[in-house]
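Reply to dn_fold:

You asked what the input looked like. This is it:
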Amino acid sequence: MRAVDRKICYRVRPLVVAEEVVPIESKSTCFSSRQDAEIFAHSMVKGQKTPMVIEKLAPAGCWLQVLSVGI
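and this is what came back:
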């Protein structure tokens, strides 16, 4: 992981139905705070009616699901 990536703690991405493995690389938007991530996710659900997932970057480098919005 690059040093720049360590500042990014949360990512928001579209929810994939029946997802079994969290993709390491996905088309997502990253934020430094959970509040900003939640605001963005809620705005995406309102605008596009697409369920979104908020994930947090764990110290080991994997993404952990924190919240699903719009389900």
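Strands lie at 10-14, 29-31, 52-57, 63-69.
Hope that clears it up.
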